[in-house]
Amino acid sequence: MKEIDRQFEIIKKNTVEIIEESELKRKLERCLSTGKPLKIKYGIDPTSPEIHLGHTVVIRKLKEFQELGHKVFFLIGDFTAMIGDPTGRNETRPILSREEVKKNLENYVEQVSKILDVNRAEFVYNGNWLRILTIEEFIKIASCFTIAQILERDDFTSRYKSGKAIYFHEFMYPLFQGYDSVVLESDIEIGATEQKFNLLAGRALQEFFGQEKQVVITMPILVGTDGKLKMSKSYKNHIPVSTTAEDMFGKIMSIQDSLMEQYARLLTDIDMNEFAIKIKENPRQAKAYLAKTIVGQFFGDEKAEKAEKTFDRVFKEKQIPEEIPVIKIPVSKLGGKKANIVDVLFLSGLVPSKSEAKRMVIQNAVKVDGKSITDVNQDIEPDGKVIKVGKRKFGKIKIVQ
After folding, report:
1. Mind listing the pLDDT tens digit for each residue in 153-177?
2. pLDDT by residue (tens digit) across 18-35?
3. Topology of 326-400 in CATH?
4. Cβ distance 81 to 95 under 8 Å?
5. Which string of DSSP letters, residue by residue, matches 208-257?
6. Which CATH architecture has domain 243-316?
7. Which residues of the chain are in CATH 3.10.290.10 domains?
8. pTM for the whole thing?
9. Which numeric CATH code is attached to 3-219?
């Protein structure tokens, strides 16, 4: 097989669409003849501090480009995050402050390094050029698009028809993201299928500014643990890469059987024919094999093995984990030795809010030293107690001065 065909097949694997395939082949041919690597762009807005498995579908493709010898630009939208991507939204995103964006960025490179060779990737921030755009330059960028083109977006169309407000700054988002491609002179941009409009804006602007148009590659969207919606922190169905091995293992084990092949195809290098046989023979064992494979990629085989044993102990044998994190709560916050169960759950961090704490109690999803708590008004003496929330969260409470 010719090198150009080999690279093309690797790049095309698991993609949804390549715009245009003929352009990609021409770029690869030029790259191989000149020895100059292609510039690959991927952008992510730090609207949340967590990168989840859904993001890694695209990041794995970036790794393949690295292995083929191409240059990866990992673009962090520290400016565009303050606007908020309207893609797939039926309402306006809240505008983030610089401080919020900066806080969300703190551990991005560390999380990405679990997959990508960060030493061979260039991390760029679009605030470096978007913050210094003049009004004159922005008008030139905006003149590339018509309002009708922007309104062609499905999310804008549905909001417009339903009478929901669309704010002018939301119109600017694809223009700014597209202009990133002009600045980087990217050869290829990758994103999820829902990002197609924004990616095509990059092609349009590059042509407008006299550059060669980037090839657009769209990747599938990973379904979340609820089995219905795309994986997203907003939908509370995500699996963060910064979690523990045990938590990741348990969450993968919770996905519907129908999602196993999608997770295997998009998140691993498992032989799909062999995996299909495993599913047919024993779905439970196949899912455990999948979970251990994914966890191993992020935490190593030893921790993946331990995560499986912990899962079996907790769920099959109905025992508590060998290692339970100790959660310290200052006595001043509790107001005494006794405290309401809702307050304890919230202060421990086992739940994100008091309303969530009440919901978990009402749903009989809270146990203290193995005993169910069903009354949101119940007071407990939490010091030294092991609290279980849901199926996977455990914490041993220690009251400190």
Report:
1. 766 777 777 778 777 777 888 899 9
2. 999 999 999 999 999 999
3. 3.10.290
4. no
5. HTTPPPPEEEEEPPPB-TTSSSBP-GGGT---BTTS-HHHHHHHHHTS-G
6. Orthogonal Bundle (1.10)
7. 326-400
8. 0.77
9. 3.40.50.620
